[in-house]
Amino acid sequence: MISEKDFIQNNYTASVESGNFEWSAPSNIALVKYWGKKDKQIPANPSISFTLNNCKTITKLGFTKKENDGNFSFNLLFEGQPKEDFKPKIQKFFERIFEYCPYLKDFHFTIDTQNTFPHSSGIASSASGMAALAMNIMSLEKVLNPTISEEYFFQKASFLARLGSGSACRSVKGSVVVWGNHAEISGSSDLFGVEFPSTIHNNFKNYQDTILLVDKGEKQVSSTVGHDLMFGHPFAEKRFSQAHHNLSSIKNVLESGDVEQFIKIVESEALTLHAMMMTSMPYFILMKPNTLEIINKIWKFRNETQTPVCFTLDAGANVHVLYPENVKEKVLQFIKGELVGYCQNGQYICDEIGLGALMI
Ligand code: DP6
């Protein structure tokens, strides 16, 4: 089994003075949710997600050799402008991954990053952002040690991304990714995300995700605080074993193409995630009235038209509407006609399953 030690790079002999790389990495949407973690970003339960295609972060990493004075040195630009308030997060990320990437203190970096989705849209950019940065760091590592394999490159990128933000480890690859040890998923690991190993039924190819922006405000609960709520939570152990069970079920569903069962698992997972927040101490309600309006409209539409459309939620009020590609026109018409009115400024984003990080 692969252990953390396997990701310590102490075999870099090549040298480089300066250069730059550019990678894009997408966001992802969990079907079985990660909620609760142990020390060192180890998840309390396994999760599975669809990698998205359009919502992504594009990050350019410039590097110049410097004296190793024991410090990290970097500038940060967001959409071309210096962004001081993002710096502590990057500093902390560098500190966490330094053990595995000891060359980080040998360079001065310029990190130039932008998102394809609107700023403060309520869409978490930590997954795509950390994944894009991790890919760039691995490109540098590959220059310093050209012997690393393609498999190691992507595994370590996911491993590093996880240390930045747990869900980010699921944004390196597509189109369906599992993170966390699970008895029935071969190769699964708590340390990095792996591509779903079985063949995915055609019903789930090109699955669509339309993100309805219900509330674009600042997150009420940061994910770090949120995960901590699972410590001492009265339902924690049950929830963690339920996630294992739901992952087994969704594995069968993705193989067999059973969309009806898919809907049940995915919606139940979303509501369970919110139920965990509502029953923790302190407790939170992250849905807004319009979130519930949308859910009820989706249920009504599904009942009346038998269209296989369902919803999922992150730790916020926005609604991800999931549906197969062959009902796209019908669902978009429904969204435009009946759901857009519940979105802040009528805003929504059309996305679909994608393939993971790409070098530009
Ligand atoms: C509700 O990955 O944002 O989206 O590891 O603290 O950065 P950190 O948390 P984060 O948590 C995401 C939680 C979730 C569910 C999921 O994506 O699985």
From TrEMBL:
Mvd1 C-terminal domain residues: 211-337
Claim: ATP-binding is one of the keywords in the record: yes
Pfam family, one: MVD-like_N
InterPro entries found in the cross-reference section: GHMP_kinase_C_sf (IPR036554), Mev_decarb (IPR005935), MVD-like_N (IPR053859), Mvd1_C (IPR041431), Ribosomal_Su5_D2-typ_SF (IPR020568), Ribsml_uS5_D2-typ_fold_subgr (IPR014721)
Domain Diphosphomevalonate decarboxylase-like N-terminal span(s) in chain numbering: 25-184
Record keywords, A-Z: ATP-binding, Lipid biosynthesis, Lipid metabolism, Lyase, Nucleotide-binding
Any one biological process term the GO annotation gives: isoprenoid biosynthetic process
Protein name: Diphosphomevalonate decarboxylase
One MF annotation (Gene Ontology) recorded for this entry: carboxy-lyase activity
Gene3D superfamilies linked: 3.30.230.10, GHMP kinase, C-terminal domain
tRNA-binding among keywords: no
